[in-house]
Amino acid sequence: MxxxxxxxxxxxxxxxxxxxxxxxxxKAIHHYQCNLELAEAFYISLSVFEVTLRNALNRExxxxxxxxxxxxxxxxxxxxxxxxxxxxxAQKQITSRKEQISPAKIVxxxxxxxxxxxxxxxxxxLWKDLRKAFPNxxxxxxxxxxxxxxxxxxxxxxxxxxxxxxxxxxxxxxxDLHNDxxxxxxxxxxDIPNWLKEFDRFDDTYTRLKKLVEAGEIQC
Length: 220
Prior knowledge:
Layout: H1 3-10, H2 12-21, H3 25-41, H4 43-65, H5 84-96, H6 103-109, H7 112-117, H8 127-130, H9 144-162, H10 171-188, H11 192-196, H12 202-214
Helix pairs in contact: 1-2, 2-3, 3-12, 4-10, 9-10
């Protein structure tokens, strides 16, 4: 495996950061491989986080609107109109697959960006109801900004991983981000983090990569 092959397959722009850091092509390629492994190690926790968040917020939105198709109130609710474009896009996706639109289909189709945006300052009016999706969040932290900030970090991380962008550079920060991810999951459901420990491979991957850094094999 050499530089030309990786630049051809993965693009010169994507690989330039790696090759610029090392005089040794194989070390640069190894670092890129480590980036893929770290991204893979996030898959389980990110997937569980996304599904847990979606279902927790969906339950509270049903209570808030008093109906399963709660998204139908956006068009005529002052301050929530901007959320409707997410719903329209979800409906288009469902229709394009020749499937029947239903509340369950809409909820499943709405993007992580939609769910995270519900916690943004623009939709503060929802916080009083949606904070109940985080029943285990300590009272002293129970402010909208304290959930919005980490959720947006997780969204950005997920997008970087799913678009094969680099994340394997500041390992300690990445470790903290994973810890925060598990913490927010615990705020939604106290039992899920313990269940995740049985098969979440992040800590093992992180420990192995940390050893490579300490040995001077990769720089991150």
